[in-house]
Design goal:
heterodimer; A: alpha/beta; 3 domains; B: about 625 residues; Alpha-Beta Plaits; four-stranded parallel β-sheet
């Protein structure tokens, strides 16, 4: 297949890219579409099944401008569900690569680096699940300096780098530090009992989001984040400092994280924070990290109720 | 079944296992284990008093384990013969059954398994199929969500003779469900579990939906499907009827089922392919149409009967189109789903065909077999020459047709069991076995004729009769062009392609040799290809050590449908020869010759071979003379 004379159609072109070779096995059962949450939560036009059809029919321009090409975050929920064992995210990645080669750009807004603050430490490049940030050198005032830059076509907007940056040099509207901190300060009202950080993808169905809204604002404050990888331990400390009695962080089950490994990063951060609490004799039960799976419908109610119970117990113990 | 049991010449042996099958067509010796029922069959009248008295309850397999049975039981109320048996694994020996049986005195706890040997003319295997366990597909939650059940369980729930007397209730709260969904292709057409289609599930789910709708007109039924396959006569009309009855069909394979923890209602997540939209619909109960898979003990049965299995585990038929009811072993036939998933009409047709086939054997005084059987020259067998039979031939035979009663006696071929693959002939280190119509001398004579003129330009292609010969034939009828230097030679199986033939080809100076046969799962002779493949691998390693150019000895498995592959392989081999400088090729051929002659030292001793060699030499000489005079 690698011989140039054998590449005749757009589908052939996709199949030459590693990961794209299983394209034509698709028999359009729609499992991928229903397993994926992007269509349901973000864009009704998102449809991996249809993208594969566009590729097979040689409709490259439609494929390049389809939201499916750009919004797939390679979580691979569809791959494990596909009865034909097609690595769909890899096929989409192959289309995306061709789209980039053809001069198309991602419609998503990437995070941007504030070069006045960036020290060029490279932590962002290390934590990013998509290898979007990279370091480059440029001369500033006659001195060679390192800076981070983000590949706009790779950034999926999970915000893991924003949380990881020690200098607060990376940000984007929707995931910036200021937007979260403003939700954690209560100058005019009593602080709520519980602050819950909810990953946008961990609650699969609308009914679960309704459960969150059923709690009054002065009891449970919900902070939406794109991924638990975005959670910064400082946010938890900030909330507790402002008088909140407990912090619950809710992410996806390992293997089901929408941004590949955000839930893993969050688990590390939260366990470290818990250990730290233990070392300075603070009640560890005040902070909790849970991972909700695709089939855990309704579990969020149990978890919040349990956390509220724990808080009251802790409070009694302290007083 | 009742009719069959009443036939005076039909003997039904229930609760009996086949332990061993020996012999051959018309003369099988079958060893049966008649399991102890702990009930004397002649005395039991099937009244069921023992079961009513029995205090033990265990899950009832026939009711898909959703109802109990007693330790004294019949598998189902229509059992033939209607004789109760005691399940000793669960019995607590309270002997209430003995009391209940009373004057009949049919219960006998001292019974033991009986081993019986029977003379059998023909065997029909009708062991059926098993069910895929959907609990391994965690996304559907079977086993975790009480209201996700299999269609087999649903069938018992909806059966008027079933545990609920036909009252459809859902397991979580015993309420009548109003919204139901069927999910097709659970574990079938799925590369992760069973890649093949289970054949009858589309019709089966439509049938269940129609039955449910007839008995409960108010329920709302949706069938989730990938493709609806209703290919037989009247099936499409039935599908139409179901649609007209108001059963919903939704194209799109569900990826997930979630459950509301309070109400235990289920939510099916699926794309509606027609709309291109994700849907999440609520149901009271979901039925999974699980895949049909081979019986759990199919592997065991296949070794007992000595019949091969197709990929996927089903019993392999003699020919998929022309002889679907015959096994590769004469006298053993298949009926129904043990040979592959099939619905009732196909099973009945195959069963009747198998019965007709079997009765042909029972009414024959004589039985015709292929003439290409193997014959032992006892005087050459190592048992005679060295007093110790090596047994390599018996090990190679896919049919167990070679018997070595004791190491001092030469091997013997049971002609009726031999199918003529020639594996033993090629494997025998003493060249003490020959195959009628494919003797070493005959094959040799053909080879010599094919390589008589300019052998260094020729590609000698060994083809097996059933696959690669068919492939070559197809290449011809399809007008696929391939090199004119190919010289084909047919033997019955790649297992017959003797190392001596390959040595002789190179000794004669052949340019290249192709060793071709069936794909491993397609072999006509059960395991013949495996024997051939092993030998080919050995040869390949050897030629590699001798620094022969890669591609001058090629091993390829080509099916009868792969004419294009046959042409491609031959063309590629021609390219290898074309790319070699003439001198280099000649030097390589000459270099091989002495080694090949050394390995063929004993070959002329094989009866007929020397004569064949001499004859072909005279013939070759005559051709050269003729050319010179011309």
């Amino acid at each position: 297949m690698s011989h140039p004379s054998m590449i005749k159609t757009f589908a052939d072109e996709v199949k030459t890219i590693p990961g794209g070779e299983h394209l034509e096995k698709c028999y359009a059962c729609g499992t991928c579409v229903s397993k994926c949450m992007i269509q349901q939560k973000v864009d009704p036009d998102y449809n991996p099944r249809r993208l594969l059809r566009l590729v097979m029919e040689g409709m490259n321009e439609e494929a390049f401008s389809s939201p499916t090409t750009w919004m797939c975050s390679e979580c691979d929920l569809c791959y494990e569900a596909c009865p034909q064992e097609i690595h769909i995210s890899q096929v989409i990645a192959a289309v995306k690569q061709l789209a980039v080669d053809a001069g198309y750009t991602s419609p998503l807004t990437p995070v941007s680096v504030d070069e006045d603050l960036c020290s060029g430490c490279g932590i962002c490049a290390m934590v990013c699940p998509y290898e979007a940030p990279s370091l480059y050198e440029k001369e500033v005032d006659g001195k060679l300096d390192r800076f981070s830059t983000v590949d706009a076509n790779r950034c999926m907007g999970c915000g893991t780098c924003v949380a990881a940056c020690p200098l607060g040099a990376i940000g984007r509207e929707g995931v910036s530090n200021a937007e979260i901190t403003v939700q954690l300060q209560y100058p005019k009202t009593e602080p709520p009992d519980l602050v819950t950080f909810i990953c946008d993808w961990s609650l699969r169905v609308d009914e679960d989001l309704d459960i969150l809204e059923s709690y009054p604002d002065d009891q449970v404050k919900v902070v939406h984040i794109p991924c638990t990888g975005r959670i910064d331990p400082q946010h938890a400390l900030m909330a507790l400092k402002s008088g909140v009695k407990g912090v619950l962080v809710c992410g996806c089950k390992p293997g089901e994280c929408h941004f590949k490994r955000g839930t893993y990063v969050a688990n590390c951060k939260m366990s470290l924070l818990g250990t730290m609490f233990g070392q300075v004799d603070l009640p560890q039960k005040q902070i909790r990290f849970i991972q909700i799976g695709t089939q855990d419908r309704g579990r969020i109610r149990n978890e919040i109720d349990a956390m509220l119970d724990t808080i009251s117990v802790v409070e009694e113990a302290i007083s | 079944m009742v009719d069959a049991a009443r036939q005076p010449r039909v003997d039904v042996r229930a609760f009996t296992e086949v332990e061993k099958v020996e012999g051959f067509v018309g003369n099988f010796k079958v060893t049966l284990r008649e399991k102890a029922k702990y009930v004397i069959a002649d005395r039991c009248n099937g009244c069921g008093d023992c079961a009513r008295a029995c205090p033990i309850e265990v899950p009832n397999y026939f009711e898909m384990n959703i109802a109990p049975r007693k330790a004294a039981y019949v598998p189902m109320s229509q059992s033939v013969p209607l004789i109760y048996s005691i399940d000793l694994e669960n019995c607590i020996h309270c002997y209430k059954c003995v009391e209940a049986c009373g004057a009949l005195e049919a219960i006998d706890f001292s019974q033991e398994d009986k081993i019986v040997e029977e003379d059998i003319g023909a065997i029909i295997v009708a062991t059926g199929f098993g069910h895929f366990d959907p609990s391994v597909m965690v996304e559907y939650g079977y086993g975790r969500f009480p209201n996700v059940i299999t269609s087999m369980e649903m069938e018992r729930l909806n059966n008027s003779a079933g545990p609920t007397a036909g009252n459809l209730i859902r397991p979580s709260d015993n309420q009548n469900p109003q919204k139901l969904a069927f999910i097709n292709c659970v574990g079938s057409r799925d590369k992760r579990y069973n890649p093949s289609c289970s054949n009858f599930c589309c019709m089966y789910s439509i049938k269940n939906a129609v039955l449910l709708k007839q008995m409960n007109p108010d329920v709302d039924i949706t069938i989730y499907y990938m493709d609806i396959r209703t290919p037989s006569k009247g099936y499409e009309e039935f599908y139409d009827r179901a649609r007209e009855m108001g059963i919903h069909f939704s194209q799109g394979r569900p990826s997930l089922i979630t459950e509301d923890p309070q109400s235990h209602n289920l939510f099916v997540h699926a794309e509606d392919v027609g709309l291109g939209q994700n849907t999440i619909k609520e149901y009271d109960m979901v039925m999974l149409n699980q895949a049909a898979i081979p019986q759990p003990d199919q592997d065991h049965m296949s070794s007992v009967l000595n019949v091969a299995q197709s990929p996927g585990g089903w019993f392999m038929e003699y020919h998929p189109k022309l002889r679907p009811m015959d096994s590769p072993t004469d006298g053993i036939f298949f009926a129904g789903a043990c040979q592959g998933p099939k619905d009732i009409p196909s099973s009945v047709a195959q069963g009747s065909a198998a019965a007709a086939r079997a009765s042909r054997i029972l009414h024959s005084e004589q039985w015709e077999i292929e003439p290409t059987v193997a014959v032992v020259w006892p005087e050459r067998c190592s048992a005679t020459t060295r007093g110790q039979a090596c047994g390599i031939c018996a090990k190679a035979c896919p049919y167990g047709a070679i018997s070595i009663t004791s190491p001092e006696f030469p091997a013997e071929v049971i002609t009726a069991k031999c199918h003529g693959c020639g594996a033993c002939v090629a494997e025998c280190p003493e060249d003490a076995i020959t195959q009628l119509h494919y003797t070493d001398a005959q094959v040799l004579a053909q080879m010599r004729a094919l390589l008589a003129d300019k052998p260094e330009e020729k590609i000698l292609a060994f083809r097996c009769h059933w696959c690669s010969y068919g492939g070559a034939d197809l290449a011809g009828t399809s007008h696929f062009e391939y090199t004119a230097n190919e010289r084909g030679l047919r033997v019955m199986c790649s297992a017959r392609m003797d190392t001596d033939f390959i040595y002789e080809a190179y000794r004669l100076g052949a340019g290249a040799v192709l060793y071709s046969g069936c794909h491993p799962q397609d072999c006509h002779y059960i395991t013949g290809q495996l024997i051939g493949a092993k030998r080919a691998e050995r040869l390949q390693k050897m030629f590699h050590r001798m620094e022969m150019t890669d591609g001058r000895f090629r091993v390829e498995w080509i099916s009868a449908a792969e004419g294009d592959k046959y042409a491609r392989v031959l063309n590629e081999m021609q390219i290898v020869l074309d790319n070699m400088p003439q001198d280099a090729l000649k030097a390589e051929i000459e270099k091989l010759k002495p080694e090949m002659s050394k390995r063929l030292k004993k070959f002329p001793n094989v009866p007929g071979v020397q004569e064949a060699m001499d004859y072909s030499d005279t013939l070759a000489q005559a051709i050269t003379d003729q050319k010179e005079t011309a």
